[in-house]
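Re: Re: token formats

Sure, here are both.
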Amino acid sequence: MLIPSRTKYRRVHRLPYEGRSRGNRELHFGEYGLQAKEGAWITANQIEAARIAMTRYMKRGGKVWINIFPHMPLTKKPIGTRQGKGKGNVEGWVAVVKEGKIMFEISGVTEEVAREALRLASHKLPVATKFVMKESKGE
């Protein structure tokens, strides 16, 4: 599971996921990618489940790039405690994904395999997604 090795602060303010992604809106590494059509917080478990779904379908062929990392801690107060007395303990880590961000990239497989692998991965994520391809240089 993905977690930061160290952070400057244990707890941070919540980051918004509204609006469009300012960077990483086009493919940089692979030939095919999965683009978010809406914003959300994506947990480390969801990223790992999507990665496993892709690599299993591709039968460990091709290469996968994960362009998101869960940097933001989510906190939660224990059940049965009263309000106040400070912020709760860290429960998990999430990645802030905004609309238009390329989350996963694939290369080294055919388009049909990439399409199906990314479709399976999209079912593990809490956002609507879109399959994108790299534009060919000849056009």
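Second one below.
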Amino acid sequence: HIAVALAVAACRAGYSIYFTSLDDMVRNLKAAEAAGRLTSKLGTYLRPSVLVVDEVGYQPLERAEANLVFQVISKRYEKGSIILTSNKTFSEWGQVFGDEVLATAILDRLLHHCEVIAINGPSYRLKNRLKAIERETDVA
């Protein structure tokens, strides 16, 4: 919700926004690469003022997929804002990207000029659902 709120605020301030999940971005980049249109497809993620990438680390990436993500991060470095959401700590990114060196290169570019918002605690989705189930159980 915070990433979406930041994107909406940026949009209202006149910035262009593109929202995607990491999985969708990687799938689209792989398809474009296979079709010989990678450079064109990269533009989708390089043109907007703000790129929001949701669910980083939801699924681990293969090396080739991680390289595609690196291309986006590297080309946007110091040129456009990136908002990422993840439930993984930075120390787990080597596993996410399948390579410690590549994960370090990505983090180096991301963390150089960033604000990290770390939210600790239980998932609000799960917490709210468990409360609803408890209420339903109490009524029955």
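The first helix runs from residue 2 to 12. The mean pLDDT is 93.
- S.
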